[in-house]
Write a structure and sequence with these properties.
The complex is a heterodimer. By secondary structure, chain A is an all-beta fold. Helix content of chain A is 0%, strand content 48%. Chain A is globular, with a radius of gyration of 13 Å. By secondary structure, chain B is mainly β. Chain B is globular, with a radius of gyration of 13 Å. Classes of the chains: A mainly beta, B mainly beta.
């Protein structure tokens, strides 16, 4: 029974390169959330997606960051032209999408991005 | 004002004691509240959820919710060294997406 899967687990990029982070939700889950966590800090909400729709992207930086959750395949968080400040752990969570405000989110293992 | 506030700690308790973790939130319409535990370098894992005022108990864990005071807490009885972690309070923000506090680091000393 696979949980939320994320890959890669670790990603090293040089400044100016692109980073692509992937998230496969738990089986049966149709809602995906992305969070960023800086060292010694809490989780910062970035974006909430359902299949083929962005529901809430209020936490996403306006530039360089984008997310998608296509009909087929994993959700992708894309960071263009990375800078050192993008170095962080990026967590994906998923939920069923049927219980409204009482939804429980289950987290993947995270992708640790290091920008050199 | 932050949406979800927690004391960052560190909170240190001796083994066997009760650890009390507190959280306040700003959005009065929030309906769902969650406590996650995060070990260093790991992902958050759900401990408890609570939706109604009062107490909810699960083993050594008790969550307490007071919507009038916009306050939610987590009590850990008979604390064990393995409970040493960062505890994240999460509040349902707007239907399905959540906001997290910065977390309280708990250390249980043998």
């Amino acid at each position: 029974n696979a949980g939320v899967m994320q890959n890669p687990r670790h990603l090293v990029r040089r400044r100016g390169q692109e980073a692509r982070l992937r998230c496969s939700p738990m089986k049966g889950h149709s809602h995906v959330y992305w969070y960023r966590q800086l060292p010694e800090e809490g989780l910062k909400f970035m974006v909430y997606l359902q299949k083929e729709n962005i529901i809430d992207e209020s936490g996403m930086p306006k530039e360089r960051f984008s997310a998608e959750f296509p009909k087929e395949g994993p959700s992708i968080l894309r960071i263009q032209q990375v800078v050192r400040g993008d170095s962080a752990a990026y967590f994906c969570a998923s939920s069923l999408g049927t219980s409204g405000s009482s939804e429980t989110q289950y987290f993947g293992p995270g992708t640790r991005l290091l920008v050199l | 004002q932050k949406e979800v506030e927690q004391n960052s700690g560190p909170l240190s308790v001796p083994e066997g004691a009760i650890a009390s973790l507190n959280c306040t939130y700003s959005d009065r319409v929030s309906q769902s509240f969650f406590w996650y535990r995060q070990y260093s370098g790991k992902s958050p894992e759900l401990i408890m959820s609570i939706y109604s005022n009062g107490d909810k108990e699960d083993g050594r864990f008790t969550a307490q919710l007071n919507k009038a005071s916009q306050y939610v807490s987590l009590l850990i009885r008979d604390s064990q060294p393995s409970d040493s972690a960062t505890y994240l309070c999460a509040v349902n923000h707007n239907n399905n997406d959540m906001r997290f506090g910065a977390g309280t680091r708990l250390t249980v000393k043998p």
